[in-house]
């Protein structure tokens, strides 16, 4: 068998997790020697008799090679810690996985920023995540997140809209879509970035998988941006892990009365960098880029009639009720409804339920 076959085998022995793999490698140095070991297994501290039996019974050369070839045919690669394509950043965390499954392409040395936040985010948070994902991607930065509902999904979408690359770290096998509505997004990411997981192919998502996934998100990244997070959330766990790994943490400030701002504001209190635009991140990671403002960002009102510009200027990323727009713009309500429809068709605003509107960045 080849070296990667031994690594794949070691990472798929039932009941043998990271801690026990570490015990084994500390004693044997390489997976091949673990495969060949018999009586020596009893000398490895931390292993039980049931573990030794599991190791011996799992030695099926044909089965391992067949599994390796099968996932390759599905365009899934397995990279061990010894592989040149295993992310360098990930090697530097305390509890790195000994192997990862990748569907897509991670052959890129561009800076990587993680964007994480609440699953049940506000529309404001969703738009901000898209904005940062898109604008950072335009500057050649890879966006990494967990493909969860809410902020994660918005950040991935923004990166793709910006024509950039994005990585999704999953709490399941890289062939399992979760949440199910992200099937198209998952497919797009696999072609314009990569799906990454330490969990085997066909592994369904489990609650305990997601905290493990978070350490990989922060581990691969050069910094973590948190957009909307309650006082206790998985996003804060990711931020804590990033700090432990020596990574920069950035936070979008929010209103002190909002529950989803509690976590982000506390991060700023504890020393995270407050971020209000992408330059706050670019300055920190010292990215070399040509700073040219994109036309669709600086000239979004080009082509709008004067009365449409008035209505557009009344809006922001905070949802505004149509009656409040009427008061601010002093435009008759019937005429205002028509203008709002035109602006929505032009793709510069978005209508929310119950006649609320926001800018679409």
UniProtKB/TrEMBL annotation:
InterPro entries (alphabetical): DprA, DprA_WH, DrpA_SLOG, RuvA_2-like, WH-like_DNA-bd_sf
UniProt domain Smf/DprA SLOG: residue ranges: 78-285
GO annotation (BP), single: DNA-mediated transformation
SUPFAM superfamilies: MCP/YpsA-like, RuvA domain 2-like
Record-annotated DprA winged helix domain positions: 304-354
Domain of life (superkingdom): Bacteria
The family this protein is said to belong to: Belongs to the DprA/Smf family.
UniProt protein name: DNA-protecting protein DprA
Organism: Vallitalea guaymasensis
Source species taxonomy: Bacteria, Bacillati, Bacillota, Clostridia, Lachnospirales
Gene label: dprA
């Amino acid at each position: 068998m080849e070296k990667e076959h031994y690594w794949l085998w070691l990472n798929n022995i039932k009941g043998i997790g990271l801690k026990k793999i570490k015990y084994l490698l500390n004693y044997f140095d390489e997976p091949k020697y673990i495969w060949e070991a018999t009586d020596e297994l009893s000398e490895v501290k931390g292993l039980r008799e049931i573990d030794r039996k599991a190791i011996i019974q799992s030695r099926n050369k044909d089965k391992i090679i067949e599994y390796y070839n099968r996932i390759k045919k599905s365009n899934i690669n397995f990279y061990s810690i010894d592989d040149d394509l295993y992310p360098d950043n990930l090697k530097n965390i305390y509890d790195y996985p000994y192997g990862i499954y990748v569907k897509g392409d991670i052959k890129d040395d561009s800076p990587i920023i993680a964007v994480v936040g609440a699953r049940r985010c506000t529309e404001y948070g969703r738009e901000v995540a898209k904005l940062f994902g898109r604008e950072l991607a335009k500057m050649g930065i890879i966006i990494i997140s967990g493909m969860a509902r809410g902020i994660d999904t918005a950040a991935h979408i923004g990166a793709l809209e910006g024509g950039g690359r994005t990585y999704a770290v999953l709490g399941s096998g890289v062939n399992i879509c979760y949440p199910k509505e992200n099937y198209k997004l998952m497919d797009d990411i696999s072609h314009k970035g990569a799906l990454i997981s330490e969990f085997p192919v066909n592994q369904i998502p489990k609650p305990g998988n997601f905290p493990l996934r978070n350490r990989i998100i922060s581990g691969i990244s050069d910094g973590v941006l948190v957009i909307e997070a309650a006082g206790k959330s998985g996003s804060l766990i990711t931020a804590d892990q990033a700090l432990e790994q020596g990574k920069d943490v950035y936070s979008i400030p929010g209103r002190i009365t909002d529950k989803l701002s509690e976590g982000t504001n506390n991060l700023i209190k504890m020393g995270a960098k407050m971020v209000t635009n992408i330059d706050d991140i670019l300055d920190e990671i010292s990215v070399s880029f040509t700073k040219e403002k994109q036309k669709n960002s600086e000239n979004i009102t080009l082509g709008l009639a004067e009365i449409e510009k008035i209505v557009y200027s009344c809006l922001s990323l905070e949802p505004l009720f149509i009656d409040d727009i009427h008061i601010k713009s002093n435009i008759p309500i019937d005429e205002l409804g028509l203008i709002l429809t035109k602006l929505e068709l032009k793709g510069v605003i978005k209508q929310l339920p119950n006649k609320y509107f926001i800018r679409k960045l």
